[in-house]
Structure to design on (335 residues):
């Protein structure tokens, strides 16, 4: 009987321990993937800590997966054995609702997440619905491409949807796993790009990744100086902030978009939203179609995650380093 070997959290906040499960029969629409790499997204840390109250223990985290297809279900026509594919946050959707039928599967009410109520990618293999395993262009190295499957699509999709172009002035808040990829895509889209960071030591690298400007957010004066400057600000941070200072940093008609998940409710005054017709919004990952487009754009324009590799067995070490904001810029587990 097939066993999948991985590393699981058995309780909120616990260290990951070796764990095996029997995946049962391969479903007709599924593929099995032998995992070579899996990125460590901060969402994995939120799930391990049960910050969102949705974790079911034990579970194997991991949703920035790259590997080779080893088995295809009887109805799978889109993938073949041996093909290199990636899997991100989403592993299934109903395929029938108005959102799925428009290619917006990420908005499906029945969306299934790769490592919520099922086992994810800190493992030797995984099974997912074949619609959610996307081919990876040959020119992308697996280690640098794995983080694109969640971190990459999460920042690419809103930049694309909000029409970022050479006339746009874009701010990226938090230069971590998501933020360092966002700097690259915003630059590829031709925008004038500003990095907002609490880490002064990241300035040089942020500029090399695509930022024209760098704002140290620990300096109140620097934040005041950028008031009224941005068409679009993308927040990738997982901490509470003075969000009013970001609303003030928007130009009239500008948008503050959340992809990072702060622990507390976001509180702002309505007045600058009214007077400047400013918008606050959010964005969840992206559809399989957008994932393919994003990987293609990354391959053609040289966008890749800057990574620190850890052997899969050292996942706990990688997690500790992410917790301390010490990784430059994405930890990736390798089998
Ligand atoms: P990460 O690699 O840990 O990066 C987060 C960055 O936020 C840090 O590098 C740091 O940047 C900044 N930061 C951390 N603590 C801070 C604090 N106390 N105050 C101000 N800034 C702080 O995390 P990630 O993997 O990029 O994920 C970021 C967030 O996005 C998480 O909440 C995750 O769950 C969420 N997420 C959402 C989606 C979605 O679909 N919307 C998808 C993936 C992830 P500096 O050092 O530059 O300040
Ligand atoms: Zn993620």
């Amino acid at each position: 009987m097939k066993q999948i070997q991985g590393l699981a959290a058995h309780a909120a906040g616990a260290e990951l321990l070796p764990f095996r499960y029997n995946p049962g029969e391969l479903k007709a629409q599924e593929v099995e993937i032998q995992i070579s790499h899996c990125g460590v997204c901060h969402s994995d840390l939120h799930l391990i800590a049960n910050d969102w109250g949705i974790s079911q223990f034990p579970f194997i985290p991991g949703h920035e997966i790259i590997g080779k297809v080893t088995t295809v279900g009887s109805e799978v026509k889109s993938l073949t054995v041996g093909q290199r594919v990636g899997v991100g946050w989403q592993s299934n959707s109903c395929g029938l609702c108005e959102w799925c039928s428009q290619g917006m599967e990420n908005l499906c009410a029945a969306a299934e997440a790769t490592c919520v109520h099922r086992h994810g990618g800190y493992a030797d293999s995984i099974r997912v619905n074949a619609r959610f395993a996307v081919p990876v262009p040959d020119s992308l190295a697996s280690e640098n491409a794995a983080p694109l499957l969640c971190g990459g699509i999460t920042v690419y999709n809103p930049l694309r949807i909000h029409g970022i172009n050479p006339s746009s002035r874009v701010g990226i808040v938090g230069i971590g796993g998501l933020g360092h990829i966002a700097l690259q895509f915003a630059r590829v889209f031709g925008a004038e790009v500003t990095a907002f960071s609490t880490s002064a030591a990241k300035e040089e690298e942020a500029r090399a990744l695509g930022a024209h400007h760098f704002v140290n957010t620990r300096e109140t004066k620097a934040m005041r100086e950028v008031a009224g400057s941005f068409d679009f600000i993308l927040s990738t941070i997982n901490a509470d902030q003075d969000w009013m200072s970001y609303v003030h940093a928007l130009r009239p008609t500008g948008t503050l978009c959340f992809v990072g998940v702060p622990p507390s409710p976001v509180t702002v005054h309505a007045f600058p939203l009214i007077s400047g017709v400013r918008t606050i919004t959010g964005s969840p990952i992206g559809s399989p179609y957008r994932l393919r487009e994003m990987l293609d754009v990354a391959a053609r324009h040289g966008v890749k995650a800057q990574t620190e590799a850890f052997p899969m067995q050292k996942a706990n070490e990688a997690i500790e380093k992410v917790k301390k904001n010490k990784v430059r810029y994405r930890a990736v587990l390798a089998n």
